[in-house]
Amino acid sequence: MIVLDHVRFGYEAGSPAVVDDLSLQIEDGEHVALLGRNGSGKSTIARLLNGLLRPLSGTIRVDGYDPADPGQAPEVRRRLQLVFQTPENQQVGATVYEDIAFGLANVAVPTDRMPERARQALAAVGLEVDLSRDVDSLSGGELQRLALAGVLALEPRHLVLDEVTAMLDPWGREQVLATVADVGGRSGISVVQITHHLEEIEQVDRVFVMDGGRVRAVGTPAEVLVRTELLEQCGLEPPLRWQLPGPVEVRTTWGSPAAGPALVEAHGVGHDYSIRVRPRWWPQRSRPTTPDDLPAPVLRGADLAIRPGELVAIAGRSGAGKSTLVSIVKGLLRPTVGSVRVRTGDGSAARDPWALRTPELFDPIGYLFQHPEHQLFAPTVREDVGFGLRAARLGKDEECRRVDAQLRRVGLDPDEFGDRSPFELSGGQQRKVALAGVLVTEPRVLILDEPTAGLDKPSRDTLFEILARLRADGLGVLWVSHRLEEIFAHAGRLIVLADGRVLADGDPAELLAARRLRAAMGWPLLPELDPAIVRGEARTRYLEGRRVLDDDLQEVAG
Fold first, then answer.
1. Is residue 80 a contact partner of residue 161, using CB atoms and an 8 Å limit?
2. Do the strands 2-9 and 57-62 form a parallel or antiparallel pair, or are they unpaired?
3. Which residues pair with residue 214 across a beta bridge?
4. What values do phi and psi take at 385, rounded to 5?
5. pLDDT one-digit tens code per residue, 66-83
6. DSSP state of 478
7. What is the pLDDT of residue 178?
């Protein structure tokens, strides 16, 4: 049993409490969800349960043990396992087996039993990879499954999941949640599932709605979901398939079709992490020339083009090659085969981003990683945003002018935030700072890899308002996404990747209407969709998970 009694916690003296007089009880074998927006105190609770943080007041007990007591904390951590939102934070081994075996070795599991325990844990989370696979070659979604497998192999009594599905496609999310529910049901493990996605709470026993460090509501999923006004006040958004009868809100930012020469193009790109790409003049016995020559390709001949003013989404299941493709486009990776060309904006011919000098590399293509807050490092916001300008030697006044302009562009007042530490900001504010640091070098193309992972609805809306303004300024925007709602509302073009190949490239409305393509993107269980629905030209109803067309839709489809 897990018990929190009048727990209070704050990160700094005198600052508002992140967890404020919180009391709750979780029974053995119970599956509960902590539901709330970013900053509501959910992740702090997870760290308090595991003893990573100590409460300022109140008590916590896990099976009678106090995680705040250094003498009892080891026993708490044997009984309660925590999976972080960012899988890299739990990566300790070079290979899949080493990563899982590390935890097993710490609890004295015999060496001859470790491989079987590792295989069982991988099967439980649906990660079909060899035990000898290099961890660095896994996608973000695959890393998240590996982190979950690592703790399931330890057979804990309590499992705390902190936004563990943030990096997974919908199919992978359903599979992991079903696995967690199955493991909890069979073994009696109690599960604390932290999320801000309402679609993830269907299978839980109870839901605690959090806001401002307090519990605003408690009940079964059915009891909580009908409280739509409260959920909206707490910054929570119902999933698309649960929306009540009425117009589908599509705040489209598509704009007119893009024209003009491509800012960046990729042709026949293939990549294999097992092959080290050497310069063409380097003597080699054999050199791959086509994707078919690659023994273990992650990409198999992908093509891509981005033009000014486009908002292009890339979708596909975890491991489809999305992050690898955008890393190659940026010039962070060199393709094993194929070519990439980028226009630098100085009137010269398109060039290979891998061959650009460092100052040039920062100019044409801006890149925001899956966790943009990890790009922050400087003591102040202004220094962090302006770091990319140092090589240009513009002078202090010009640097300050550009930095302040980009802070305003992303919605941050430079007078209020410029001299603050980026590490004391909220998660949404940190992502804005990271984005300003990318935009300050005035790129022509902006790449964002899963930029909304872990963000609640207000933060996602703010991000896409910024991207809409950038598109209007003529930037080409390419973003990787697993979220159906995002693509519905914002994508002007959709590229579907499957097994390292571009399966389709075109109008999102037409592509999302095809069941085969939705399955490739990880949405195989959605009902049939009409392109008119995707464009927001008809009304839809979602009842018991199935869409029922009304008379307006019949007129459109007829």
1. no
2. antiparallel
3. 211
4. -65, -35
5. 999 999 999 998 999 999
6. E
7. 78
Report the phi/psi class of residue 16: left, alpha or beta, with left for phi > 0 and alpha for psi in -120 to 50: beta
Q: Is 499 helix (H, G, I), strand (E, B) or coil?
A: coil
Q: Is the dihedral of CA 72, 76, 63, 109 positive or negative?
A: negative
* Residues contacting 83, CB < 8 A, separation 6+: 90, 147, 148, 151, 159, 160, 161, 162, 164
Q: How many CB atoms lie within 10 A of CB 480?
A: 23
DSSP tag of 200: G
Q: Pseudo-torsion of CA 229, 235, 241, 242, nearest 10°?
A: -20
Bridging pattern class, strands 19-26 and 2-9: antiparallel
Burial class of residue 61, CB neighbours in 10 A (0-12, 13-18, 19+): middle
Tell me how far apart the alpha carbons of residues 183 and 195 are, in angstroms, rounded to a whole number: 19
Q: What is the DSSP letter of 527?
A: P
Cβ of 208: how many Cβ atoms within 10 Å? 24
Q: What is the pLDDT of residues 387-407, one digit of tens each?
A: 888 766 777 888 899 999 999
Q: What is the CA radius of gyration of the chain?
A: 24
| CATH superfamily for domain 2-241 | P-loop containing nucleotide triphosphate hydrolases (3.40.50.300)
Q: How confident is the model at residue 294 (pLDDT cuts 50, 70, 90)?
A: confident
Alpha helices in 107-168 (DSSP H): 114-124, 140-152
In CATH, what number does 264-552 get? 3.40.50.300
Q: Where are the domains of the chain?
A: 2-241, 264-552
Rounded to 5°, the CA angle 424-426-430 comes to 85
Long-range contacts of range 223-230, CB-CB < 8 Å, 24 or more positions apart? 224/35, 225/198, 225/201
